[in-house]
Amino acid sequence: SKAPSLTLNNGVEMPQLGFGVWQVPDDEATAAVSTALEAGYRSIDTAAIYGNEEGTGRALASSGIPRADLFVTTKLWNDKQGYDSTLRAFDESLGKLGLDYVDLYLIHWPLPAKGTFVDTYKAMEKILADGRAKSIGVSNFLPEHLETLIAETSVVPVINQIELHPQLQQADSRTCHAQHSIATEAWSPLGQGKGLLEVPTVVAVARKHGKTPAQAVLRWHLQLGNVVIPKSVTPSRIAENYDVFDFELDADDMAAFAALDEGKRLGPDPAVFGG
Ligand code: NAD
Q1: What is the ipTM of this complex?
Q2: What CATH number should be reported for the domain whose range is 5-193+221-246?
Q3: What does the sequence similarity comment in the record state about its family (predicted)?
Q4: Among 56, 116, 172, 228, which has the minimal tally of Cβ within 10 Å of its Cβ?
């Protein structure tokens, strides 16, 4: 079966479950993305800094899947923030992917101390107007960064991709996103596989449904309305992570997951990352 879609604030449909390729070397990305496409994934999340846009693009090209059925996201890296450098970096990403448009282009980190995300986003508005990105958004923006961006630019981001998993549930960001009709996309949705998948509550809920801990966690995200982009290079896990559309967590399960929030960040704090 196929991942459900979310309708973004600009009317574009985005698959709610996609495939992330952080830390997948370029020469392994083609095989991993091909495996994901064969398993049914249609949304792929890469970034300039991952160094695998070319390998990802090769898998897209050789898949035979019509371009309109794919949803490709890439991200602008920190050292390219600024109006002109964003336009140039976008050209480079598009070239590496071998595409003539991306579905979603994101600012990777806000870098609040640099003060360049507004100019960066204005370049992305131009890319959007030119039809070379179908949607634009941000990643790792705290509510204060979103408020500044929305006040100073014209296009409300469709999505904010943030670290989010049962041990970091991000209530403040989710509330802010809901107020602005911004979708919430969870990075490291499985908590990078470290610890979270052994938490007794997660194991128990999974067992109750005859599913794996990873599947139970992904189901929790989907039922909250998050977009999720789990990563794996192991074919059996790639398939397992997509096999989550045939069961549902009940209210007790959701309440048990809600109790796991402990504000546990695995990645950098966006308020200070990048200086
Ligand atoms: P994840 O939470 O998806 O965990 C991936 C790891 O979990 C794998 O490497 C593997 O060790 C384990 N795993 C995966 N499937 C499993 C399964 N079925 N059973 C057991 N273990 C399993 O972590 P991630 O890669 O950090 O995040 C996913 C994606 O999010 C990335 O690939 C990337 O696309 C995106 N991301 C974005 C940012 C950002 O700053 N915007 C930062 C990190 C990640």
Answers
A1: 0.99
A2: 3.20.20.100
A3: Belongs to the aldo/keto reductase family.
A4: 172
Whether residue 186 contacts residue 17, with contact meaning beta carbons closer than 8 Å, is answered with no
Give the residues of the chain that fall short of pLDDT 50: none
For the chain, which residues make up each domain, given as ranges?
Answer: 5-193+221-246
| Ligand 1 pocket by Cβ (under 6 Å) | 20-22, 45, 108, 139-140, 161, 187-193, 197, 212, 214, 229-232, 237, 240-241, 267
Rounded to an integer, what distance in angstroms lies between the CA atom of residue 84 and that of residue 45? Answer: 24
Q: How far apart are CA 216 and CA 241, in angstroms?
A: 10
The structure's pTM equals 0.98
For residue range 194-230, list pLDDT tens digits in order. Answer: 899 999 999 999 999 999 999 999 999 999 999 999 9
Ligand 1: atom nearest CA of 21 is: 32
CA of 274 to the centre of ligand 1 (A): 22
